[in-house]
Design brief:
The chain is an alpha+beta fold and 564 residues long. It has four domains: 146 residues, Immunoglobulin-like (Sandwich); 115 residues, Immunoglobulin-like (Sandwich); 72 residues, no CATH class; 147 residues. Helices cover 17% and strands 38% of the residues. Strand 27 and strand 28 form a beta hairpin.
């Protein structure tokens, strides 16, 4: 029975099944244009608005609090707005939202009671509305989130003339911390990794990583994330992790999905996902602990397997043909031919040897070099130049600088991008002068590390253009004696940094410049010995194929002679 007509239905079902989950990196869905109403809401005293950005309270179970909110009409025409409290939650993609009007609140939104449900405002006016907050006696310790919302519903028509109801809402956040035992914890859940190989069996593929970050504690938290893909040879590929998680409410979760390139197929690999919790703005660090999730998945080179399947089919056909054509008694012996299965195994071995250079282990790195500073002490807002103890080994002619230490992620925070070594000046010792794009104060602020304290390691890593594995590292240690001052024992010889060979104007390393007038030749990303292995494989394949081709030609000649 023909069932090909079911394929469109199955494809449509697959599309429906894969369209349910929203991710933090998905673009926002298109929405109808709002009506032309301008209104707002903000915290207030009994007489006027105040400077608070949100309502934040610390309370004990059973407490009763009183406060006020100001409702504004910025337009010229009178306006009636609805006023209501509601539970707050995180969307699947990480946004902050509250329940719509008409959906009952069961958490902190139900603790709030406004004096009125609606407010009518003349043009360009405001009104102060009192409200109460009653914390239940059985309220659990930790953070509870809600919002006080003003909303206007308007009717309009879209471009096709269809009636559209537009519900405009603005609100002010309400954060309530109930006293008791606090628990700060983020967990990585439902980690999945799917490998997408390249059509070229000698090239790396990409891995799609998806996972969920859930707040399993009882306080609001931010977070930094990092993802690494490791294959069986120890080769590591890192992706551009999503933006920092700004605020995840207790019990809520955010979904993430992105691609990591530069992954070489070695039958299986490990996706390592790290989430470093961060306190939200204005909160203290409540003994935050990172969570690391490791997920094993298949790194299968499907193009290689397809080639092996083809070879297996050819081998089966050869074997069947051989059984059908047994030599006649007294026939001359035919020249020995290497069986096709053996040839297939030899070709597979050559292919694996050709691919091994793409997966170097950690032992491939050269001995660690050193970095040095121009002076023995400085401030967190000083501009810093570093000097490497030597050049990078060929052909690893790209450099990236990072800092590791307290407050930074396990893989460190970047101080420069991955930049061609040719953009840096060369010192008399053969090393590079590496100007940091930002001060340590700026880097710490961007990373959310908090005050700098203790020892920090700065590492400059030599890399290939297309492979993230470090070939050689140069390191230095500086110590923050207080949050703004540092010292180091790694000091360059007097004047060494200033004697560096002058070059063309150096592009900003943070911008990832590709080079200057002295830029090196383009790095193909494939080592010379890989091309040698590929050439040897082709020669071996030709050597194996020649006797087989001769045999086929001899068989055809015999058939033609018999026909004559």
């Amino acid at each position: 029975m023909r069932r090909w007509f079911l394929l469109p239905l199955l494809a449509a079902a697959a599309l429906v099944m894969t369209a349910g989950t929203a991710y933090a990196d998905d673009p926002p869905a298109a929405q109808a244009a709002p009506a032309a109403q301008t209104f707002g809401i903000q915290p207030a005293t009994a007489t006027e608005p105040d400077a608070r950005g949100t309502f934040s309270y610390a309370a004990t179970p059973g407490a009763l609090l009183k406060d006020h909110v100001a409702v504004w009409n910025y337009g010229e025409q009178p306006l009636t707005v609805r006023l209501y409290p509601a539970d707050a939650f995180n969307t699947d993609s990480g946004g902050y939202d509250v329940l719509p009007d008409g959906k009952p609140s069961t958490q902190a939104g139900s603790w709030i009671k406004a004096a009125v449900d609606s407010v009518t405002l003349p043009g360009r006016s405001r009104q102060i509305v009192p409200f109460t907050l009653a914390v239940p006696a059985q309220a659990s310790p930790g953070d509870h989130a809600a919002g006080i919302v003003v909303a206007v519903r308007a009717e309009s028509k879209d471009a096709k003339g269809n009636a559209v109801t537009v519900d405009q809402r603005v609100g002010s956040r309400v954060n309530i911390r109930v006293s008791g035992d606090l628990k700060a914890e983020l967990k990585v859940e439902n980690a999945k990794a799917v490998y997408h190989p390249s059509a070229n069996p000698l090239d790396t593929g990409r891995t799609t990583v998806s996972y969920t970050v859930r707040n399993t504690g009882n306080i609001r938290l931010g977070g930094k994330q990092a993802v690494r893909i490791t294959n069986v040879f120890g080769s590591i590929a890192t992706g551009n992790a999503p933006a920092d998680l700004q605020e995840l409410l207790p019990g809520n979760a955010v979904n993430y999905r992105f691609d990591v390139s530069g992954v070489y197929p070695t039958l299986w690999g490990t996706a390592g996902i790290t989430i470093d919790p961060l306190p939200v703005a204005g909160d203290k660090d409540p003994k935050l602990v990172s969570d690391v999730s490791k997920h094993r998945f298949a790194l299968i080179p499907w193009t290689t397997l397809a080639a092996l399947l083809l070879l297996a089919l050819l081998a089966g056909r050869w074997w069947l043909a051989r059984r059908r054509r047994r030599p006649l008694p007294g026939a001359a012996a035919k020249p020995p031919v290497l069986p096709v299965p053996v040839a297939a195994a030899a070709l597979l071995a050559v292919l694996v040897l050709c691919q091994l250079p793409y997966a170097p282990g950690a032992s491939a790195a050269e001995p660690v070099g050193t970095l040095s500073f121009d002076y023995p002490k400085g401030h967190d807002d000083d501009s810093i130049d570093l000097l490497s103890s030597g050049p990078c080994p060929d052909p690893a002619n790209y450099l990236a600088v990072r800092i590791n230490g307290a407050g930074f992620p396990a893989e460190g925070a970047p101080l420069t991008g991955t930049v061609a070594a040719s953009v840096y000046r060369v010192a008399p010792n053969g090393g590079f002068v590496l100007p940091l794009a930002n001060t340590l104060k700026v880097v710490a602020t961007q990373a959310g590390s908090g005050p700098l304290k203790g020892d920090y390691t700065i590492t400059a890593s030599c890399r290939h253009k297309v492979k993230p594995v470090s070939v050689k590292d140069f390191t230095a240690v500086l110590t923050f004696t207080d949050p703004t001052n540092w010292t180091t024992a790694a000091v360059a010889p007097a004047g060494m940094l200033h004697q560096a060979v002058a070059a063309d104007p150096v592009p900003n390393p943070a911008a990832g410049a590709a080079g200057s007038a002295a830029a090196p030749a383009a790095d193909s990303g494939v080592p010379l010995y890989t091309w040698i292995a590929v050439t040897a494989g082709l020669l071996l394949a030709g050597w194996l194929a020649v006797p087989y081709v001769r045999r086929l030609r001899a068989g055809r000649t015999s058939v033609e002679e018999a026909a004559e």
